[in-house]
Amino acid sequence: MAEKSIEINGLTKKYGQHVAVDNLTLSIDKGEIFGLLGPNGAGKSTTILMLLGLTEVDSGSVKVCGIDTTRHPLEVKRKVGYLPEDVGFYNDYTGLQNLLYVARLNNIPLEQAQKTALRTLAEVGLEEEMDKKVASYSRGMRQRLGLADVLIKNPEVIILDEPTLGLDPEGVKKFLQLIVELSRKKGITVLFSSHHLHQVQQLCDRVGIFVKGKLLAEGKISSLAEQLFSKNTFTLEGGITPMDENPNQASDSLEEVVNKMKRIKEVSLVEVDKDHFVVESKKDVSAELSRLIVNSGYGLAYLTKKKYGLDDIYHQYFQEEEKRI
Ligand SMILES: Nc1ncnc2c1ncn2[C@@H]1O[C@H](COP(=O)(O)OP(=O)(O)OP(=O)(O)O)[C@@H](O)[C@H]1O
């Protein structure tokens, strides 16, 4: 069995009557990049604070690298690097000076700190900017320096809370690539908290969908789709056209064609809008559908199997949640 970096069991946190995190159970393997995905107020930051031992737990347990954070928060902090949304720096210091300051706070001896700082700044792509004052840094450069702050203590786990806010699309792409490279190269476990579906999809091995304090689903994106769409696994979309070449050929009415489609055993839903149709079914019925359409005197303009992405999954879970409330 894979070694676990993060083990959360029945974790609950209340603010007064409000349950911010509700009986959360989750484990993350060593070296894995896990995405905690949810809208604002879902409880992501509260979970992270509990992981870091920065806020009290009402019930349940959290272990990071095998250490209980509620009992030994300082030991956990030594092993975990945390990058919040917005990192504070000394603007009058250079990037290198800021990093050396963080190294000192982490009790890294000066000589070692200098070597490690230079290497880390190169790793995050700031070697050419390290002697410039942070006041002149762009948002992207500040986030890279934030990542260097996190990496300098050689963490086993890094936790990133909405780290790409305010970055332009190119900056986001580079930042995400950097995280993947570093995680793979150093075997670092990453917990990436975000409400950006596409970023999570690009970066993460596994995803947890978190809404109103509850983990609604977790798994690989492909298996989330299976869990969610298991009732009607296949969605086929097609275009139907009249047979122009042979106008005298008798055709069924469109209504009759739809009724025939509905009579295919595995089909659970047929929707038609002008010449476009959507069929949901328990197995792939593309062959039956094409035969049926052609035999009814129509042409098939296209027939495609819809692939579910994270967007579909995310919205479906949100819809489910809204229905329950
Ligand atoms: N210190 C606090 N006191 C009272 N309520 C709080 C406190 N911190 C968070 N909350 C509430 O707990 C819920 C979860 O908040 P949390 O910040 O963990 O969510 P989030 O998913 O990280 O969202 P965001 O991305 O907006 O930070 C919210 O309803 C929030 O208002």
UniProtKB/TrEMBL annotation:
Family the UniProt entry places it in: Belongs to the ABC transporter superfamily.
Organism: Maribacter aquimaris
Protein name: ABC transporter ATP-binding protein
Boundaries of every ABC transporter domain copy: 6-237
One Pfam family hit: ABC_tran
PROSITE patterns named among the record's database cross-references: ABC_TRANSPORTER_2 (PS50893)
Gene Ontology terms, MF aspect: ATP binding
InterPro entries to which the protein is assigned, alphabetical: AAA+_ATPase, ABC_transporter-like_ATP-bd, P-loop_NTPase
Gene3D superfamilies in the cross-refs: P-loop containing nucleotide triphosphate hydrolases
Hydrolase as UniProt keyword: no
